[in-house]
Amino acid sequence: MGAVLAVVLGASLTGCSSTGGKRAEERAAAAAEGRAAVNTPRWTFAMVTHSGDGDTFWDIVQKGAEQAALKDNINFLYSHNDEANQQAQLVQTAIDKKVDGLIVSLAKPDAMKAVVAKAVKAGIPVVTVNSGSAESKEFGALTHIGQDESIAGEAVGDELNSRDRKKALCVLHEQGNVGHEQRCAGAKKTFDGTMQNLYVDGTNMPDVTSSIEAKLQSDKSIDAVVTLGAPFADAAVQAKQTAGSKAEIDTFDLNAKVATGLKSDKLGFAVDQQPYLQGYQAVDLLWLYRYNRNVLGGGLPVLTGPQVITKDDADALADFTKRGTR
Fold this sequence. Notes:
By secondary structure, this protein is an alpha/beta fold. It contains 13 helices and twelve strands. It has a six-stranded parallel sheet, with helices on both faces. Strands 7-6-8-9-10-12 form a six-stranded mixed sheet, sandwiched between helices.
């Protein structure tokens, strides 16, 4: 989808003349060969996220950003830290390097507000991704790219209703992450049954598994478990088996394991926010801003989700998850 949009945007920049199609083909060929598809200056963009080490979701975001950077002749710098103060320090480092554009996630916006303001004051265009859509405009960002977490949560509640679930557990693996709280609150809002939050230490997967297992053992009436990230779905499946529970395991986000789990009925559904698109479009929009002062969204977030994925969709997405773009 990102690649298609890039071609469409590129075609619009060259106009609708008889040469437009040829130029679009030339750009696509250049990107496929590992060459830049444009001859604009080699600007430097930095992306700083709240990812922890080994997070497959953010690997996909990074891959999308890197592929757009290659196409757009961008020198791309990526850094991450799941500690908010350390993430803010990394943003300051990018400011000190006088980057030409900044992409940042706002999982813990209070810790990021001052440093994002510094970037804006320094004349660095900022795009926020994934989390912090409510704060993005206030902080001075050009736009926000991601899903509205409350709307995504509401979609989960609706899906649970359609599956006739009555009692659900929402597993939060990163305490203080505003987006996670919004997901569970949104699901609780639309879910006709009862929903309880379970806080776990997402940096300790055995703890995640044992915490879910203990909850399922103590309350056999739980018939749905919703995890907020693809790696935690597998932990919930293991916990379900050990606890002898019949609860359906559902999750936010998509990866190869989740696609396989959907196909085998180990998972009921997944909510995909298209992380590849978040990274790809963030770089592309910064490039468009530097090149042509384009801004997308009209002051509102550019939504990449939610998209509810079920067993029926898993086969079509399997190849994309294996190559790490979905």
